[in-house]
Design a protein that fits this description.
Radius of gyration: 32 Å
Number of strands: 0
CATH architecture of one domain: Alpha Horseshoe
Number of helices: 26
Strand content: under 5%
Helix content: over 70%
CATH topology of one domain: Serine Threonine Protein Phosphatase 5, Tetratricopeptide repeat
Shape: elongated
Largest sheet: none
Distance between the termini: 103 Å
Order of helices and strands: HHHHHHHHHHHHHHHHHHHHHHHHHH
CATH class of one domain: Mainly Alpha
């Protein structure tokens, strides 16, 4: 197709699009010549080359016309491709998904979520199932990052799980496959959260039992084996079978450690495997391999960009904090907090402040249990800063109570009054638990008084009564309230003696 035929094949919308967007710099002489040539061919078909050259380049050699025509055709083809993309639903949806991923990496999660939701809604509307699956998974990854501070994130994830499963069923991508390469495809499509029944595992066990991994595994089968055990880990975790979960996570970590060459291609999977294993260790208080494995997790930071190094720093620090809290080794934990708080500012510019909420909450709890109330208040100031979004419901409750009790012990009674008022005002949005009400009343009644053993014992008795409610029991356990009150009672008795 020559240039004349190409131009006359354009419809009205394409002509309009080319005139508007086909030329970046209208002042450029060459571009103005190309635009003039385009309009001339469009309005006056059948003009000879010599006449066109006389109108476009009257004082220049007609041979130069060949270059102007070539440049116009290239520009026209590029503009048509862009026009098609702009009007192609798949391209639009994929573009939104890419924008969501880009914003997620830069921790602008609210904006990323908007693009992911737009992509999912559009993909479902135009029945682009594969793109809908991709958009739903992108949205899930974003919402998962919001778990730390967004209240309904877990519920949103559960809804997305159901959506993804329905979409996968529609595309029949969960069929059973009998070769290593096909197994990889199958496992990718039913990864973790999409597992629906034990039958899936029975089928997968049959495949693994076919000894396809006995020979030197190819890269595909290596990844399939990893995904297989990740699936088991997620499945048994959802069922609360933590011993089985830990077993599969350990098998996976040890399997990946054996092949250093392939491991270099799957560092993200290895990080996930280590993180899963360490979290399960904390969950069931099995710390036999904890120190060696967490060191390995830290050592995987080498290939990460600055933002992801900051995320890994938070993961490692929170794992260590959670361990000392489970072991009630608060003195060791206090030293960890001091060290990590010094390092944390190096990572602040790379992540949104809300990513640090669990880190600061754990640091505040450990400082509080070590009676360093000034340091506890200092850490909590990061959570309640104007630049930071408030964390989720449980973290808000814990941080408010830590703040209140710390200022009460430090005799900052004007701040105590302010916190009390804020908590009472906030009750219209979130009803106070019995534990919160008991501590609120205790700090109001006993400010500016000498707190005796009897006062602490009375609060301890009230807290135990409140703990009969599951939500209160959960809140008290999260920051070891009963342990701290017994500590205060013992200290008060020593002072009396």
């Amino acid at each position: 197709m020559n240039l004349d035929q190409l131009i006359h094949s354009l419809d009205v919308q394409e002509v309009s699009h080319f005139r508007k967007f086909g030329f970046e710099y209208r002042k450029d002489k060459e571009q103005r010549k190309a635009l003039k040539l385009f309009n001339l061919i469009l309005k006056k078909p059948g003009l000879g080359d010599e006449k066109i050259a006389g109108l476009i380049i009257p004082n220049e050699p007609s041979s130069k016309m060949r270059f102007i025509k070539f440049a116009l055709k290239e520009r026209l083809l590029n503009a048509m491709v862009n026009y098609q993309k702009k009007n192609d639903q798949s391209a639009i949806i994929f573009d939104w998904i890419q924008k969501a991923e880009l914003l997620k990496e830069r921790t602008d999660l609210d904006e990323a979520l908007k693009f992911a939701e737009k992509a999912l809604k559009k993909a479902l509307l135009v029945e682009k199932t594969e793109l809908a699956i991709l958009a739903a998974k992108t949205k899930k990854r974003i919402v998962h990052l919001q778990l730390m501070w967004k209240e309904n994130a877990q519920h949103e994830i559960e809804k997305l799980d159901v959506e993804i499963i329905k979409l996968l069923d529609r595309t029949k991508e969960t069929e059973l496959f009998l070769s290593a390469d096909q197994l990889l495809v199958s496992l990718k499509n039913i990864h973790g959260w999409e597992l629906r029944s034990e039958k899936v595992f029975q089928d997968l066990d049959k495949i693994i039992g076919m000894k396809i991994f006995e020979k030197e595994p190819q890269q595909e089968s290596f990844e399939a084996f990893c995904l297989f055990h990740l699936c088991h880990s997620r499945f048994y975790g959802a069922k609360g079978a933590y011993e089985k979960k830990l077993l599969h996570e350990k098998i996976l970590v040890e399997f990946m450690q054996k092949d250093k060459e392939k491991l270099s291609f799957f560092l993200n999977t290895f990080r996930t495997a280590l993180n899963n294993y360490l979290n399960t260790c904390v969950e069931i208080k099995n710390f036999n391999d904890f120190d060696s494995y967490i060191k390995q997790l830290e050592e995987t930071a080498g290939d990460l960009n600055i933002r992801n190094k900051a995320r890994l720093f938070l993961i490692v620090s929170n794992l260590r904090f959670n361990r000392v809290l489970e072991e009630q080794n608060f003195e060791k934990g206090y030293q960890l907090v001091k060290n990590y708080i010094k390092l944390a500012p190096l990572h602040y510019p790379n992540l949104a402040p809300q990513f640090f909420h669990p880190f600061h909450a754990n640091g505040a709890i450990i400082s509080f249990l070590n009676n360093d109330f000034k340091f506890c208040v200092k850490i909590l100031s990061h959570v309640f800063s104007k630049e930071s979004k408030l964390p989720g419901k449980d973290l808000v409750r814990i941080c408010q109570l830590l703040n209140l009790l710390s200022h009460f012990i430090l005799e900052n009674f004007s701040i105590v009054d302010s916190i009390n008022r804020n908590m009472e005002r906030g009750e219209t949005e979130q009803q106070l638990l019995s534990t919160e009400r008991s501590i609120l009343e205790f700090t109001q009644k006993n400010k500016r008084k000498t707190i005796s053993v009897a006062h602490w014992k009375q609060l301890h008795k009230q807290v135990i009564t409140d703990g009969s409610n599951p939500e209160d029991a959960k809140l008290q356990a999260l920051f070891h309230l009963e342990y701290w009150l017994i500590l205060r009672i013992n200290q008060a008795e020593i002072q009396n003696n």
